[in-house]
Known about the structure:
It is a single chain. This protein is an alpha+beta fold. 23% of the residues lie in helices and 32% in strands. The chain is globular and about 80 Å long.
Amino acid sequence: MIAVKNINDQIKICSEDLVLVENKIFLTLAKGSANIDMHLGNFFIEDNIENYSDFKIIDTKVENNEIVLDFINNEEDKAKIKIYEEDEFIKIKFISLAEDYNRIQIRFKADKDEAVFGLGEQFSYFNLRGKSYPVFTMEQGVGRNKENEITKLADEYMRGGGDYYTTFYPQPTFVSSNKYFIHCDTYAYCNFNFENDDYHEITFWEVPNEIVIGNSNSLINTVKKLSSYLGKQDLLPNWALKGLSLGIQGGSDYLLKCSQKAKEFDLDLNSIWIQDWEGVNVTSFGKRLRWDWKWDEKIYPNLNNIIKDLGSNNIKIMGYINPYVVDDGELCKIAIENDYLAKDVNGDNYFVDFGEFNCGIIDFTINDAYNWYKEVIKENLINFGLSGWMADFGEYLPTDCYLKNGDALVEHNRWPGLWAKLNWQACKESQRDDLVFFMRAGNAMSQKYCKLIWAGDQNVDYSEDDGLPSVITSALSLSMCAMGLHHSDIGGYTTLFSLKRTQELLIRWAEMAVFTPFMRTHEGNRPEINHQLMEDENSIKAFAYLVKVHNQLFDYLDYLNQINHEEGIPIQRPLFFHYENESFYDIKDQYLLGDEILVAPQIRENSFKRKVVLPNDNWIHIFNRKEYEGGVYEIETPYLTPAVFYKKGGNFDTLFETISCIKKPIIFS
C-alpha cells in the first residue's frame, strides 16, 4: 500500500519498504524557452529558464483508492497530482498544473551509495550516478569525449564531436540498485540529474502521461517487471543466430567473389549485407548511399537471381533503408505529389541536409504517408527477396519542421519508435517471421517493435567512449532497459582524421562479437583505407574459426533468445544480475552471456593480457579449459583466445566443452 506523510513540510511517499520521496521539495515548476539548433543530426539545445517556483503540499486525501496531493507555491499557484497502484505498478499522474508553467521538475529519494542504470543506450557510463543526462535522440557524435583529440577535431570541422550523453537511443527509464525502476511515459525532452546525494531530479518539457514505478526482490526481476510493462521482443529467427552476416559494397561481381572466397575458406555466412543495393552517393565524408530505395541494376546486375541462387545455399541477402527520400529520386516525387512530406515554416516541403545531399522527411503522422512507406518496404525490399535490412536513422527529425498531426519537438523522440513499428508491421503483414531488421535509434517502443539493435557508428579504434569498449557499455545499459538483442559493426564504422581500422582491431572486435546474438561486419564509411576482412586471407581464416565457435553456441543462444522473448531477460547481462554484489555496479568492460558464460573481451590496443573479475563460482576458461575460482585475475589473451569462461556445473557444460576442440588456425606471429 502507498503511504503519504507530510511532516514539517517534508513529504514522504513510500510503498512498503520502498521509499520513493523523502524531500522538502518534491515538485518545482518553471517557465522556459528553448533554443534548438540542428547540424547533421547533432542537436545543440539551450533552455532559458525565467523562474523556478517550489510547491509545497497543502492537502492529502484518498479518493477511489487513489491518493490525491494538492500543492501551492508562494504566489498561490496550484497543482494537483494523484498516486495509485495498478497492475502491480505504482503510477503518478498530474491532474492539473498552474498555468504559465511549461517546465516540470520532480525529485525522488536517493541514497548516497545508490547506483543507477539505463536511460536507453549509454556509451560512456554504465553506472550513471554523478552525471546529468538529457533524453533527446540525436547522432551519438564522433569521439564523445571533449578531452579527446578526435572529438575536438570533429567539433571544429563538423560540429559533431558529441559528448558523454549523446546517443541515438535515449529512454526516460532508469533502474536503481535499490531494486526499483522509474519509467516516464513521455516523448518530450526531459533531463535526468543524478548528481545529488539525496535525490534524483527529473525535468520535463511537457506533462508526462504518467510516471510508472516498479520494484522487485532482485535487479534481474526488476528488469523483468519493466519488460512486462514495455513489451517483449520478437524471437530472432534461428538463421541469424548462426554464421556471419558479411557487410560488403561494390556490386554483383564483388558480392559473388566474396561468397566464393568465404566458401573456399570455410567461412560460414548466414547472409551478405549489401547496404549499397540501392546505389551510391560519394561525399567528402565517404561512401554514402542513394536514398531512393529500389534495386540499382547497374551496380548489382542480376541481383534478383543471385538472391535465389545464394538462397539455395542458405546465404540470404540483406539491404538498407531509412525514413528519408533523396530530393531527386522517384519516391520523393511520389511523396511530393501526395503531400506526404513534413513542411517548413512557410508551408513548403522541408528538406534536410544529410551532408552534401538533401532529403525529404516522410510525415509518419499522416496515415496515408505511413502506410505508403510501409508498402515501399513490402514491395521494394521484402517482395524483391531481401531477408532483412538496416532500418537506419530515425533520430534526425528537425524540431522546427511542421507535421500534419503533431508537434515536431515532441514527435522528435517518438520518431524512432514509429519507424520501428512501421518496419515491424511490414514484416508482420508480409507474414514473414524469418525477416530481420536492425536499428540504431530507439525509444520505449523499441522493445516491442524492434527486432534487433546495433550500437551505431563507433570509431574504428579502442577509445572508451566511442570505440570497441563502448559497445559493451551500450549493450549493458540497454539490458537494464529490458532491450535484450544487441550487436555492433564488427571493426567499427567511423573513419575520420587519423582514424584507420587495423587488422588487430577487426580481430579483437570479432572475438567479442562471437558472444553476442548476431555477428555482422561493416566496411566503414571509407572502405579503401580500412583493413577489410575479405581482402586478407589471414583475417578470413581467423573469422572462419571465430564463426565456428559462434555456431557451436547455437543451442545456448537459442535458449537465451527464447528467454528474452518470453521473460524479458536480455541475452547480454551485467554481472550483478546473477551475482548481487555492489562492487560489480561499475563493471562495464565484461558481461554475462546468459547466466553460464562470462565474457571479458580484449579492449586494449597491442595488449595480450587483461584483468578479469570472476564472481564467486567455479569457472572454466572456454578455450584452454583451465579452472578458476571467484576472484580477480590477469588473464592472457593471445589472438583468437579472448578471456571467456563458462560456469562449471551448468546445463550446457557438454556443449561448452566442445569449443576447445575446434582447430585454431596459426596465423599470427
